[in-house]
Each structure stands twice: as structure tokens, then as C-alpha cells.
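Blinded run. Sample ID left blank on purpose so nobody reads anything into the name before looking at the predicted structure. Input follows.
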Amino acid sequence: MTFIRRRQFLRCQLLVGGGLLAGPILPVQAQQPEVKNAGQRLGKFFTLSQNLLAPLPIHTQLDKRVAARLLVILNRKYPDFPQQLDKISKNPSAAERRLPIARHIIRAWYTGVIDGQLVTFERALMYRIVSDVLPVRTYCDGRPGDWASLPQPANRGV
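Blinded prediction complete.
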């Protein structure tokens, strides 16, 4: 009697284990078209961004990792963004450059912020334009807590 129970227990364990191993494979295969579609969307977004921002400042290249993060946040913040992205061409005309989607994309790349959410700081294009003269500040250059006090007016010997 215990031998049969052990056999049933082992059979159940093998079925559960096999199901756990096969489980992750099935959703991955089912999601492949969506993943391919996401790759195409990212490619279109990246090409569109390059064309909207052309000509870029000297020694400035767009980062695909930043593009992926921008696309995710734009999709999350603006529910109609994917439909608008489908409607705009990769090489936008002058009229398409004035559309709200184009302004969202340009603003996101230059500021690194989308609707109050920080996406990138150092890779924001507003810092790349002046990078030959001004470094990107990632620290306080005064004493600790200097940012909390009011600035003192400059004494001019007048």
C-alpha cells in the first residue's frame, strides 16, 4: 500500500515539475510576436527621434537604452501614444513636426523628464549642447547642505 502511494506521489511530483519547466516556455513562445513588435516600435521611435532632432549637436549621439526607457514612459504616461506613433512617418514633414507627439518626443530627449518623471539626467540633450563648456553637475560643488541656504547677494563696492 505504501509502495503505491509513493509511486503516485512521485508521478504527481514529476507532473508538477514538468509543468513548471514547460510553463515558462509556452508564454515566451506566445509573446514572440509582441516582442518583435516592441523591437519594431523601438526602431521606429529611435529613427523618428533622430529625424526630429536632426541636426544633433557635434559629438552627440542618441542612446538606444535611453530611447527604450523614454518609449516605455511615454507609452505609460500618454495612453494614445502608440496609436500616434503608428500614424506619424519616420521622416516627418514640417506639419508632422508640429504635432503633440513630436513635441513630447523632443521635450523628452532634451530635458530627460516626461510629465514630471525623471528618465535620464546625464544623457539629456540639454546638457550635451553645452558639454564643451559646462560639465554636467552630478554633485553639489559647495559645502554639504549648501543648497538649503539662501544665496548671499554679491557685495559690489558702490
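Unblinding after everyone has recorded impressions. Strands lie at 113-114, 117-118.
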